Amino acid sequence: MKVQATVLKDYGSLTVGSFLFALGLNVFIVPLGLYSGGIIGMAQIVRTCMVNYLDLALPTGLDIAGILNFIFNIPLFLLAYRSISHKFFVKTLFAVVIQTVCLTVLSIPAEPLMADTLASCLIGGILCGVGVGLTLRFGGSGGGVDILGVYFTRRRADFSVGKLGLFINCGVFGLCALMFELPTAIYSILYALIMAQTMDRVHYQNINMTAMIFTKQEGIQKRINMEMHRGVTYWQGAGAYTDAKTYILVTAISKYEVAALKKLVHSEDPQAFVIFNEGMSISGNFEKRL
Three-state SS string across 54-105, please? Predict the structure, then answer.
């Protein structure tokens, strides 16, 4: 029953994330004539070329960029299947299918909802960043650059998915600057920056933490080793007031593991005292979980 609830939560979150990305893009970014980055940005540029130069007639409000994005992602699906994990592949395929449907079905407003382009970039970037961050946080991805980001993150502990997106987007937005007006490229870059920063904040993989645990209960370090597969350094101290023996444990984790660590520690010792430090720079043998 617990496993079914976890699976439902994961796929429900993937659905919400994919919808939020499509909502932010179709409702706030596309009506302004702006472009996303990565594979979806390439799909949007191809779509524009098909409409402007091939005179492709599309129903009002319908965008084929999502369908083109799915087609362009097929080689990356194979990369996810062969080099990352089957579970990641299934969740990514599910997220991209939902994303494709939402991008195709969600009607694009004929006129921008907000007259202020900067405000639209801000809202659209936050919505898209939260959407992509959710898909990453719950074990999948939005396809495209996200797959490459997860692939390289598994091989480099200091790697950031958002930073990879910004690097690849330089080429996409450079193309936008050449093909369209310069303000189009500038505002598209601004949207991508906001999206990348939001995504990295939601995707807890990029937020490292240290935890210092004070407990009188023996054996907690072994449970952290066995159940969370994290290393622990511990030593014995004493309380200044009572002079009672106390164990002091230190471990490094990602932010999304905080809840699991709290639950484990307090199941052993409800009186345990835990201090968390966020945003620590960690080098050496630290495994980054996805």
Answer: CCCCCCCCCCCHHHHHHHHHHHHHHHHHHHHCHHHHHHHHHHHHHHHHHHHH
Nearest in space to 197 (alpha carbons), one of 186, 189, 185 = 189
Compute how many other C-beta atoms are within 10 angstroms of the C-beta atom of residue 259: 9
Helix 86-105 with 145-153: angle, nearest 10 deg: 160
The pair of structure tokens assigned to 244 is 């009672």
What angle is formed at CA 141 by the lines to CA 137 and CA 143, rounded to 5 degrees?
165
Of 104, 108, 100, 172, which is closest to residue 142 (Cα–Cα)?
Answer: 100
Low-confidence ranges of the chain (pLDDT < 50): none
pLDDT 10s digits, 10-43 = 899 999 999 999 999 999 998 998 888 888 888 8
Q: What's the CA gap between 39 and 168, in Å, rounded?
A: 9
Report the 10 Å Cβ neighbour count for 242.
Answer: 8
